[in-house]
Specification:
The chain is of the alpha+beta class. It has helices at about 45-65, 100-105, 135-140, 145-170, 215, 225-235; strands spanning about 5-10, 15-20, 25-30, 30-35, 40-45, 70-75, 80-85, 85, 90-95, 115-125, 130-135, 170-185, 190, 200-205. It starts with 6 loop residues before the first strand and ends with a helix. The structure holds thymidine-5'-phosphate. InterPro entries: SAICAR_synt/ADE2_N (IPR028923), SAICAR_synt_PurC (IPR033934), SAICAR_synth (IPR001636), SAICAR_synthetase (IPR050089), SAICAR_synthetase_CS (IPR018236).
């Protein structure tokens, strides 16, 4: 059994602790919701447990499909063990259907199916509000090399295909999502962070009901029953 040692990082939704193994971190998912880069913030008891369980399930299903992630195992309702990564400061967004900032910026109608999945990079820097950047910016800022950029895009698209299948099994359309990658001790680029209704846009495939954080971002209601619905659907396909 691993031991929970000192706090090494505290983010908006998670705390990371060192364990006795230098390559393994202990993650605690928090009952906190934020939007607008932290400007909107609320304590939502139970959200940490739901996101921990949903992310654990999704990472296990990605592993079954041959996709490597930092996830080791879920250890409690709100905690999991992960491989320690040197994080790449990018938010890699993949879009299948127009929504969110894509519709606002480009005046494309929400719900339009894109002709192919679009990959975008955002520079993960709170002080700058995570600006949209292109491949040249990523290279010029020494965030990643050309080869690494290609690998990030290829991985993001492969993960997209796997996630589309994983969500289709629970009658959900994967509209778009955000990924974060890190480098493990062997220097391999691996999927990290979380994949949950906080980081994906998920629409019911039959009714288009929103099953994700847009409910919170747009003040459309309580997110707990919505996230619980996503978890229940996963549990029904175990
Ligand atoms: P966007 O439409 O606001 O750019 O978001 C695209 C996707 O990325 C959406 O599924 C929500 C997710 N996302 C995050 O997980 N974290 C973020 O900080 C942002 C901006 C988006």
């Amino acid at each position: 059994m691993s031991e929970k040692l000192e706090l090494v990082y505290e983010g908006k939704a998670k705390k990371l602790f060192q364990t006795e193994n230098p390559n393994i971190l202990w993650v605690e998912y928090l009952g906190q919701a934020t939007a607008l880069n932290g400007k909107k913030k609320d304590i939502i008891e139970g959200k940490g447990e739901l996101n921990n369980k949903i992310t654990s399930t999704i990472f296990e299903r990605l592993h079954e499909k041959g996709i490597q992630t930092h996830f080791i195992k879920q250890i409690s309702e709100s905690e999991q063990l992960i491989e320690k990564m040197e994080m790449i400061p990018l938010e890699v967004v993949v879009r299948n259907i127009a929504a969110g900032s894509f519709t606002r910026r480009l005046a494309v109608e929400e719900g339009s199916v894109l002709p192919f999945p679009i990959v975008e990079f955002y520079y993960k820097e709170d002080a700058l509000d995570d600006p949209f950047i292109n491949d040249d910016h990523v290279k010029a800022l020494n965030i990643a090399t050309s080869e690494e950029i290609e690998l990030l895009k290829k991985s993001a698209l492969a993960i997209n295909q796997a996630l589309i299948t994983i969500f289709k099994e629970i009658n959900i359309r994967l509209v778009d999502f955000k990924l974060e990658f890190g480098k493990n001790v062997n220097g391999e680029i691996v999927l990290a962070d979380e994949v949950s209704p906080d980081t994906c846009r998920l629409w019911d495939a039959t009714t288009n009901e929103r099953l994700d954080k847009d409910i919170y971002r747009k003040d459309l209601g309580d997110i707990l029953p919505i996230y619980d619905e996503v978890l229940k659907r996963f549990e029904s396909t175990k």
